[in-house]
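batch job 7 of whatever, protein = DUF4175 domain-containing protein
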Amino acid sequence: MNFPFPLLISAVAYALLLVVIYKGSLSSSAFFIPVLAAVSALVLGGLFKLQHWAGAAELLIGGGTLLIVFYAIWNTRKKQRQRLDWLKLSYGVALGFSGISLGIGWRLGLPWLGGLLQATMWAIILDFVYVTYIRRSTQPPTA
């Protein structure tokens, strides 16, 4: 029996993504509950789709659309945007579009969107780790 390394890597990546979300400013904004509801609709829609229950397409399309709209509005209202903010926006948009494509049954876009999701997820994690823990301050020392 082989050890499932891809599953372990995905679990570590999603755990690190939760740390990014926890330390970010979305959790303290007014858009946290709508974005959380949209992500919950995506998760529920995915579970409904797995069980072949009615309403899966509506949950996936609605959750994906709401996620894109709410996250884009939240991102435009931020005072200062950095590279990490743009990466998180691209991840949210890719997640929303993959939910929409699952909902409408467009299977041709799923591999492309899955690759985009993984690439942006790892870019977010690496940028967050670099900015938070590795990069040193660029301010000159005061004498």
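notes: The longest helix spans residues 110-134.
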